[in-house]
Each structure stands twice: as C-alpha cells, then as structure tokens.
Amino acid sequence: MTTLSMTQIRTSNSSSGFSLNCSKKFYERPSRVGFKVFASETQSSSEPDLSVTVNGLHLPNPFVIGSGPPGTNYTVMKRAFDEGWGAVIAKTVSLDAAKVINVTPRYARLRASPNGSAKGEIIGWQNIELISDRPLETMLKEFKQLKEEYPDRILIASIMEEYNKAAWEELIDRVEQTGVDAIEINFSCPHGMPERRMGAAVGQDCALLEEVCGWINAKATVPVWAKMTPNITDISEPARVALSSGCEGVAAINTIMSVMGINLNTLRPEPCVEGYSTPGGYSAKAVHPIALGKVMSIAKMMKAEFDSENYSLSAIGGVETGGDAAEFILLGANTVQDCPW
Hints:
Elements: E1 8-9, E2 17-18, E3 37-39, E4 52-54, E5 57-59, E6 63-65, H1 74-82, E7 87-89, E8 107-111, E9 122-127, H2 136-149, E10 154-159, H3 165-176, E11 182-186, H4 200-203, H5 206-219, E12 224-227, H6 236-244, E13 249-252, E14 256-258, E15 261-263, E16 268-270, E17 280-283, H7 288-305, E18 312-316, H8 322-330, E19 335-338
Parallel strand pairs: 6-7, 6-19, 7-10, 10-11, 11-12, 12-13, 13-18, 18-19
Antiparallel strand pairs: 1-2, 3-4, 4-5, 8-9, 9-17, 14-17, 15-16
Helix pairs in contact: 3-5, 5-6
GO molecular function: dihydroorotate dehydrogenase activity; dihydropyrimidine dehydrogenase (NADP+) activity; NADP binding; uracil binding
EC number: 1.3.1.2
Cofactor: FMN
C-alpha cells in the first residue's frame, strides 16, 4: 500500500505548510482552438434549458459524474447516461493495471455523532482506493461501446501515468482512439502511487506539472482538463500553470488527505486492512466549504488572467443537492461534478 509523501517547510512568516515549487513561466496555447464556454439561451415552454457548451462540448446539463466508483465500468456509466447526467468521467486508467492493488476494506465514514457511534448522519467519507485495477484494454473497449451507443453524450477519460513522456503519449493515443470527447488528467489523487510520481505528486510540484502538461498538450487532440489537488497551500498556482501549459480547463477539488479516526475498541486507524492503515482521501458534505474556498480561488485567478470564453472550471466537493451545485456555479464554475455512492 502506498502513501503520499509530503515535505513540510518552515518560514519566518508561518509555522509550516506543504512545499510547492511553482514556475511562473507561461506558454502559448497549443493548436486546439475554437472551444467556447456558454449556456444555452433557448428555453422550452415547459422547463428551463440547462444545456451548456463547454470547450466545444455540448452537455444537456452542467451536472457531471466525477471520476470514481460511478465510472468503474460500462454498466454504471450507461446508467448515468440513461438517468440524464450531462457527462460522465470514467474512473482513472493507466497503461499497466497490474501495478494497482485495491484492498478491502478501503472506506471509512464520519458521522455527526460521538466517535465510535454507529448512529448519526454520515457527513464524511474517507477512501484509500487507487485508480482502476481493470485491464486498460477492457476499459477502452467499454469507452468505445459507450460512444457507439451514445454518440451525442459526453464521455471523458480520466488518465494518470508515471513520469514518462512515452507512457503519457501512448496512453493518450489509445484513449483518444475510442472516441472519448475529452480527457481529464489526474494530478490530484492524494494516495495514488506518489513514489512513481503520479497523482498529487505532480499536482504539488509546479515545475513537474508544467513539464508533464507540455507533453500531454502536445499530444492530445481533444480538450484537456487538469484535476487539481487541494493538498497544497495555494491551489491557484498549479491551476495557473496547467492552463498556461495548454489545458483548456481545470477541475477541483479532489479529496483531502486525512486520517478518518481511531477505533477506540481496536486502537487502530480506520479503515483497517489486516491491522494496517494509511492516510486517505476525505470527501462528502464535510469538505464542501473547503471546496467552495478552493474553487473561488481558482475562479478569481482565471477571471483576472485568462479568457473565460476559452477556458473552463469544473467544480467538485461535497455536492449532495441542487443548491450545493448552484453555489459552485455562482462562484464561476461551468460544470459541477458529483460522485454518488
């Protein structure tokens, strides 16, 4: 099992924080042009038209299934389309699924009740789940099948690779051949094999992020969204780097690094796998205020520095109601992602 290694730094102005190496060198956009962000102005006589066009992609509504368990396979993604979701982002894939070992149990819950209580509303989830452990060939076959059956619906592939230009290029090529409409780059998984320079290990290092985004955007022919980690001091810094390095959009936030709690009966952290545990990703209602703050930070930066007609922001974090989604849209998000369990 892997954990995310983060270095603490100490300065004269603050006691501690996560190290962040951010380059401010900007690059011109690659040749993927003509992508716009706007809401439809036409309305039917019976109900409002919620359709949006984001980076040239037409969605029937701005509500998107986020990368995770609801995008694990063909069956659940098909159900999302049938139920009317605006787009589906599949669970993250990489070239070699054999290196991914998902353990059981891998989830823990936080309840609005005393520690250890089995009662009370669930307000937080923690997971130590890694990316897809299904063979890439299987996932690609299902992407192609979905696009054949739903040619007018938006399917987005989430991808993550090691610090290897050739691997990124091969993965992008194979994913695009299935007909997916866009790609979301997972620069944000808090416990996703950082020893291989994957996930948040890239999203927390702006110099590394700039280099990898350069590889990706030189290869990709469909819109690219960079998914940002909240486990840094200023999330607008890597978001700026991703957009300046050619990405059409950013998505935020992924889960927050956490330890859910200690079982006071067993004296072990949760979730516990054969007596062991590790920090994981915290999500659900309890992270919503944090996500709002991070999304606001990115939105302000994008409004000040980027052309809003050509760039997009997809918001994630503790969305359980239409009101939760509306809050993100009011802060400047073009789409809102949810990962229902």
